[in-house]
Specification:
33% of the residues lie in helices and 26% in strands. The chain is of the alpha/beta class. The protein folds into two domains: 30 residues; 153 residues, 3-Layer(aba) Sandwich (Rossmann fold). It has a five-stranded mixed sheet. Strand 1 and strand 2 form a beta hairpin. It is elongated, with a radius of gyration of 33 Å.
Length: 211
């Protein structure tokens, strides 16, 4: 039996259902939100550490260490490079024209391939290099990184305008999985290694010419 109380509510053995509005649920959600944000930032930090930001190939890392003096041409020479690319921070390491020019120039000086290397457009000869392709892995992985570089080398007599030597060169370098903590770092080493070997091939070929 139900009785109507003075307050207008039903008074009996069964109470009407109540809607529980607890502040504990809101407190719990508010407490977990910072934890979720911290976890997300941690994952992003680890992703950045493992992937790394791309850096361009360094000119000094592209100079062959074992370059030796075989013959010196008694002329002057300058170097011109085209086809290089700038490196985007979220992209892949690239070889810039300026860096490759400097690496070739320093290698020619180191090997004494020519009597004088000019850092302008003057000289008896010009070494022109076109970077056709720097083939890199399309996605990151936890293992090694291999890069193949394809270039076209030309030696021109600036006094006559004649092309005295021309050759397409291909070089490949693989950076081991333990060479750098990040894949981007290993990729940079592979790019520099391929460029270094390419320069070694080109300078060696020029050194052995009869000019």
């Amino acid at each position: 039996m139900y009785l109507l109380s003075s307050t207008g509510a039903l008074d009996g053995s069964v109470e009407p259902p109540h809607r529980h509005t607890s502040s504990g649920g809101k407190t719990s959600l508010m407490a977990t939100a910072p934890a979720i944000r911290i976890a997300a930032l941690t994952l992003l930090a680890w992703a950045g550490l493992l992937g790394g930001c791309a850096a361009p190939a360094a000119s000094d890392a592209m100079i062959p260490e074992t370059a030796s003096v075989e013959k010196t041409h008694p002329y002057s020479v300058n170097v011109d490079v085209t086809g290089g690319r700038a490196t985007e921070p979220i992209g892949q390491p690239q070889v810039a024209n300026e860096a490759f020019t400097e690496a070739i120039t320093e290698t020619l000086i180191k090997t004494k391939t020519f009597a004088k290397v000019k850092k302008n457009k003057a000289g008896n000869y010009r070494v022109s290099v076109i970077i056709f392709n720097v083939q890199q892995p399309s996605s990151s992985s936890g293992g090694s990184a291999s890069v193949t570089m394809e270039t076209g080398w030309t030696l021109t007599n600036l006094l006559t305008g004649d092309i005295v030597w021309q050759k397409a060169l291909r070089s490949t370098y693989t950076a081991a999985s333990n060479s750098d903590i990040t894949f981007t770092g290993r990729l940079k080493k592979a790019v520099e290694g391929a460029a270094k070997d390419n320069i070694k091939q080109g300078v060696t070929e020029i050194m052995r010419l009869s000019l």
